[in-house]
Amino acid sequence: MNQNPAGLVYPQPTLQFDTVTVGNVTLLKESMTVLIGSAPDKNDYGTLRYRYMDPDFPTTQMHVNSYSQGAGIGEANIVDNSYITVLEDYRVWAKIPSMSGGAMWKDDDIGSLLNNGKPAAVPNGGPGTAGTIDPVTGRLEVAFDAQSWIHDLAMSPAVSVPQNFIWEFPGTALVVSGSITTPTVTVRFLPGFYYVYLTVHNWGLNHSETQKIPIFARDPANDLSTTKFKITSHTQDSIGQELIIDLPNDLPRTTYYDGFLIMLWDDDVVYVPLMRRHMLFIGWHQSDEVNLSAEATATFDDTKLRFYDAGKRLTTLPGFTMVMEYAATVGTDWAESQFANILYYIWFLLHFHSTVLEVADFYDYTHSLAVFDFTVLGSDKQNVSAQIQELAARVSPDYRMVCNRRGQLKMIPDLSLINTIDRPTAVMDGITDSMWTSITWSYSHQPKIGQIQTKSLISSHGYVMVDDIETLTVIACVAASTQYGQGEQLIETGEMITFNAYDLQVTEGHRFAKLNRPYEPFTITMPYTLLDPDVDVGEAKWLHLTIGDAFHPIREATGFSQLRGVVTELNIQYDYTDTGLTRTITITWEMETSGYPAIEVILWPDVPEEGTV
Q: DSSP characters for 222-281?
């Protein structure tokens, strides 16, 4: 590096280097990891995200994320004659907005014009996968199907339909069906770790997006993976997965850099080239937990590593205050958009404030969020995930963004808030008496909520005129009725978005029933192998529960038969013994509820003027 640190003013968006000693800068791809160090492969001077080479190529100027002075993630301490190492490593980074010349810029130099053109497509090439090579072919066969996750018009008018599929595979890979320009393609990989790249363009073919998909082909004769570890915690909640692993092997940071990728899979689940049912976790190193204990015979190191998936990583990225307003024509700044709907707003935060869409699929499970329009809507939360959850929960019924066990981001509705006649019927699995080892729950007849008062905007891109003033159309309702109930708590909700008063009343009536449910969430424990691998918090499907009459609690007249409910948390326990590994899973399960429509409230009644009848 030949950048002179003297007089350098931070933050800086570029790196200046002397020459390339190993490799080829033309092979660099957006969002690779850049190490700045006192020697090759070291990051003692900082870790950055690669963006692009200067347009006047050939050049010795590299554009990276805008960085402050420091030696941490996203920072750099510029020292003359230091070394730049670029890794084929991709992770979930924050993209930091900035002000310059009175204008807002995303990721240092992206202007608002990009926001008001045709949006970028989301590649959705499918999740990563890992498995053991076929002993006959000596390769791992992987099928890719980008069509399965395509953002078509019915799904999301706000997000461009992917055009011009271009796959990029390692030179040793063998394409056995399809081609590098078809949405579906099957490829066989020699042993090793690779990234597969899928590039798609938007409607106008003026904006491309590339997804990076990790692939690992394991060779048992020369095994680059490890089974020498202990999982001390493995949980999935409504945000994503967290994994804590005790690794007895040495993992020096000089080799396994902070933030490295991990892939966990289950060899007991049959590998299928197109499916990813065997994949348990894809995520990134987040932190260490160190415990050194001095015993009489030796000092023991008990270091545990914590990993987050894509959904959990978003909880660590900073949130930035946003206001988005509908513009009928091309807007002039970031706050204006022709695509003012909830799906676009969520995509906007994911795309312009993070790199998550480069490493994870994203789609709207029920194809609904793009039709929830708004005129103006703000967002102000501490992190990107919280911003998205707040936006998703504003529609009727509530939505949330989840990361499933395969590492895909999905927008799914709260099934118990959907109109009962419209609720899905798909079932993930069913739990019966022969499967569970314990079930616990609480029951309380006392309501918790006395009343819910809700105000909502009508889905629209326009104002209504009230006394010659532009006003947003607002409706309101109360649940269960205008009379306060037996519960102690009052809930007041504003800034919801709905299509009409009836939809709002149905949702809020179901919400009142859900919050006042007598049966608290059930905790179900069972052997892991008895549960279908497709059971996932990140799926908008039901899980059935049956407790036979022979096991009914003393306060229930009978057992429960195929009760519908949703999974809100999974906790897998790993018990390592001399005879092998035993896994137990604990499920948090919420029973389906339903209520009666809330009562409409007139916000602005026609009040007679004083002195009139």
A: G--S----EEEEEEE-SS-EEEEEE--S---TTTS-TT-EEEEE-TTSPP-SS--TTEEE
Per-residue pLDDT tens digits for 354-404: 999 999 999 887 668 888 999 999 999 999 999 999 999 999 999 999 999
Report d(CA 433, CA 451) in Å as an integer: 38
Q: Which of 584, 449, 467, 561 is nearest to 511 (CA)?
A: 449
Q: What is the C-alpha to C-alpha distance for residues 303 and 301, in angstroms, rounded to an integer? A: 6
Beta strands in 421-541 (DSSP E): 427-431, 438-440, 449-458, 464-466, 469-471, 474-479, 489-498, 522-527
pLDDT digits (tens, 9 = 90+) for 547-593: 999 888 888 888 899 999 999 999 999 999 888 899 999 999 999 99
Residue 382 token pair: 């501490």
3-class secondary structure, 385: helix
Give the length of the chain. 613
Q: Provide the 3-class DSSP secondary structure of residue 572.
A: strand
Largest CA distance in the chain: 96
Pairing of strands 522-527, 542-547: unpaired
The two beta strands, 542-547 and 560-577, are antiparallel
Dihedral pair phi/psi, residue 168, rounded to 5°: -130, 120
Q: How far is CA 488 from CA 48, 92, 447, 494, 595, in A?
A: 51, 42, 8, 20, 19
| Pair of tokens at residue 19 | 């020459």
- Is the Cβ–Cβ distance between 583 and 267 less than 8 Å? no
Burial of 367 (0-12, 13-18, 19+ CB in 10 A): middle
Query: What burial class does residue 321 get, using C-beta atoms within 10 Å of its C-beta: 0-12 exposed, 13-18 middle, 19+ buried?
Result: exposed
* Residue entry with tokens 């137990």: 584
Question: What are 517's two structure tokens?
Answer: 């449910």
Give the Cα separation of 78 and 71 in Å (integer): 9
pLDDT score at 486: 94
Separation CA 97–CA 352 (nearest Å): 9
- For the segment 318-363, what is each residue's pLDDT rounded down to a tens digit? 999 999 998 887 767 888 888 889 998 999 999 999 999 999 999 8
Cis peptide before 480 (omega within 30 of 0): yes
Report the C-alpha gap between 210 and 166 in whole angstroms.
9
The answer to whether the beta carbons of residues 544 and 427 sit under 8 Å apart is yes
Two structure tokens written together for 319: 């949130």
